[in-house]
Amino acid sequence: MAVTVLIPTPLRPFVGGRDALEVEGGNIGELLDRLTGEHATLKPHLFADDGRLRSFVNVYVNDRDIRQLAQRETPVKPGDTVSIIPSIAGGTAASVGTQHAAPLPSQAAPVLSHEEILRYSRHLILPDVGLDGQKKLKAARVLLVGAGGLGSPAALYLAAAGVGTIGIVDFDVVDKTNLQRQILHGTSTVGTPKLESAAARIHDLNPNVRVEPFETRLTSENALDIIREFDVVADGTDNFPTRYLVNDACVLLEKPNVYGSIFRFEGQASVFYAKRGPCYRCLYSEPPPPGLVPSCAEGGVLGVLPGIIGSIQAMETIKLILGVGAPLIGRLVLFDALKLQFRELKLEKDPDCPVCGRHPTITALIDYEAFCGIGAEPSYDGAEITAEQLNEEWERNPELLVIDVREPHEHAIAHIDGAQLIPLGELPDRLGELDGHREIVTHCHQGSRSLKALEILKAAGFSKVRSLRGGIDAWAVNVDASLPRY
Amino acid sequence: MLVLDSRHVSAIRRHSEADYPAEACGLIGGAVDGDRKLAVQLVPLVNRRTDSARNRYLIDPESFRHAQARLERDGLDIIGVYHSHPDHPPAPSAFDRDHAWPRLSYVIVGVARGRAAEMKSWVLADDRGAFEEESITNEERKVVWQ
Question: CA nearest B52 in A: which residue?
Fold first, then answer.
């Protein structure tokens, strides 16, 4: 008596349209050999060129998968039912990274086209890269958090190098003030979403790269889902909540986090990879108090600086993918552009680190805004005044005292006529110059430092103090269009 | 030629949008009539590729078996598979081709930023060398939906 073999719908045309066949054989190997011997056109659908059963072809003896039994050697006896059951797989990209090694063994390394071989020839002749390395790059999936100053050079170099998939998280729109350093964008893309601008530029540079856009703010809700899909994360964020979020998510998912940050003339870079070294929290377990460290928008930044730090991030990312050289794990590089000096600090893993230490207290993503004290900022309801209101009140009340708390070099770019310049840092020492009976309005560039000035004045007993919302920038937009914006 | 009616088309589009940015997948039950494959019932399935659902889908053999058993009770065969390509055109990838079954219709819908876009159907050549596009015809039919 023979064994019954059930044929799934897609294969029935190859066996004369029948849904079941009686086949003789003592084990699965013999059975399948006989089956494909009688029905030769069936063979390529069941077996790969190397003679092995295709990964998506599942063979069951009665109700058990032969992979859990003895594979081809699984014995069969008369009366058994053998079923060929499809699993169905597919997807978009032509390749996947090593971190995505799937249960499907046929996911081979990607193939390079002739165009790619020509394009990457300077890589291919490097012994440390070569064909294998270039294929690793093509299979790799890198996530850039932010398509700004650091993300720009990183994206360009990673795309040029042939990283197969670049994910970008950004929800911002290209602004003219970005162009001084964010070389991924151009004058023609001012006003368009950074993701669109970035995708177009990357596609122009290297159409082989797939860009996966995430037009969203990275949050505790979406970070794990987004980052999970990538092999390496390059952090180009400009704020502390997101930086801690990226760090914690990378630690939880065991992904390397290639870190960079910049301020004025100085930059830092490292690779935080908790599996093999310290994480960002080992270095800075707590964020600085809100407002202590000014952002680039407040403090300024030399345009070339993110080019250097972002390029280091791209370099480290590529080294991690290729597995060559000594990565920046456990080392913090400090760069001083004015002295043109690189220094290196050794970083140790903190055994008491709350997220990657021996007894972690953070095992899921938390509320990073609250952690960084941003939600805890005092409320300024009623303490702010709009540019139009100020203009109106000032006309009615020329005694109103407007204090510009910016730096003198900012004052030189643009200033409101009649405002008195007292830089924020000097304010506590110059309170004596102010008349406590007059109404005071503080202003800065965009309305952040003037709130700090307001706190200083209130703490010193000045009661009639308000801050200009949006700073001189709002004044230039809504009141005096002759002022340049910066 | 694959014959779908408007409810199939909108159900596939809805499923693809709902699962975005992951790939959505499901089976198409129906009957083969000469060179026409008539879709009757869709079986939306859970994408088993949790590790990289954004660019891969997997219908595991258990799901396939259950769907097949259910469809056979209704006198239907599995005539095709549908899946979505998030932020990617509805053309089969090399990966799709390597993993394809013959004769089945592979309906792919592109989803651009969460919105279902173009839908195309493909059939693997018997020599596995290439996917060939097949036409999708819209026909409204009276069928009993369960």
Answer: A229
